[in-house]
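Why show two proteins at once? Because comparison is the fastest way to build intuition. When a single record is shown, students tend to memorize it. When two are placed side by side, the eye starts asking what differs. So, the first record is below.
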Amino acid sequence: MVRRKVGNPLAFAVLGSLAERSMHPYEISTMLKSRGKDGSIKLNYGSLYSVVTALEKAGFIEAVETVRDGNRPERTVYAITATGREEFDSWLAELLGEPEKDFSQLEAGLAYLPAFAPDRVADLLEQRAGVLEQEAAGLEGMHAMMRSKKFPEIFWIESEFRVELLRTEIAFVRRLAERIRTDDLEGTEFWRRTHELVAELGIHPGELLKDPVKYFGVDFPWLREVLPDAQ
């Protein structure tokens, strides 16, 4: 991936907006919101001005005029430069054609899933699925409205992508919650028993793993792979 002078995704959106026509920052913000782009790119009005300043300093945009609307403060109108257009084209090609690892919050949580007891994890996953279901349903309702108005899908395809991700995640977490509750997920019985012993004996989980035969009545060869000090 290219290391960019201004790497904030909001900078990409500003360049894309100005590639369409010259605008002042408030107008850019209004357009992004009206088109629903703030659902794909985090939009903060205060950050927008910092991004605009950084883009101008990098030579990607330039001030072309100052306008005043009634008694409102003067606003600076910006235009994209030839260098800025090259930057936008290169950035768009990268985003569409070069996969990059996304470090999701769910993935981070799953990496430490055994820290909670199985039933609590299952409850939290089902809670998550419920919240995601509401978001997906809301977006699907908006898509139905867009289609009824014959609004071209190319202008909201990123929202379709979001729904696909949501539906995939909902199916995964619900299936995972069920597998945990029924001990179908490999290792769940060990996981469940570990939390029971910690509650009964009042000891740290690490102590149980040091001597699995003593506490579980059986050895776990795989422990030596994850805990080199395990006997």
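Second record. Ask yourself what differs from the first in the token line.
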Amino acid sequence: MTIDKLIDDVIGREGGYSNHPADKGGPTRWGVTEQVARAYAYKGDMKAFPRETAVAIYKRRYWTDVRFDQVATVFPRVAEEMFDTGINMGPAVAAKFLQRALNLLNLGATTYPDMTVDGLIGAMTIAGLKAFKDKRGVAGEVVLLKALDGFQVGRYADITEARPANEAFFYGWLANRVGSLA
């Protein structure tokens, strides 16, 4: 799947404008919060936030700047899942999920060294991902997707238990985010 198709799918799921009272993100259009739009110099009303600006933000903030495009060269479906998780939870969270999974799957650091779980995709993370693929083959991608989904469900449960207002979103998160790309 191309990044353009991934973005189209996200925009299709997210829809147009929303400002749900229980959503801490506030005004949102095309799935982009007002805070993120402002960080990319958008100054207008979120109801008029252009789709093409959302597309540009998605490509930069949730794909290339965070090196999920490099993950895609090794395991495309893992990168797709990280892209979606990054939009909903933040790219650093998605990257930490991958790093944590890779550390747990490296057979006591015998396949590749443990990496720092810092939320930054760099040379160590990509090297670990490649070594994991060399060891486990394409079947390893399915295992990584299961690990990422498990971490994602756990995080949704934690944030919902910490903030009961998120119960308004918990069902939708599980229905539309977890495993939605696997």
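One difference worth noting in the second protein: The longest helix spans residues 139-162.
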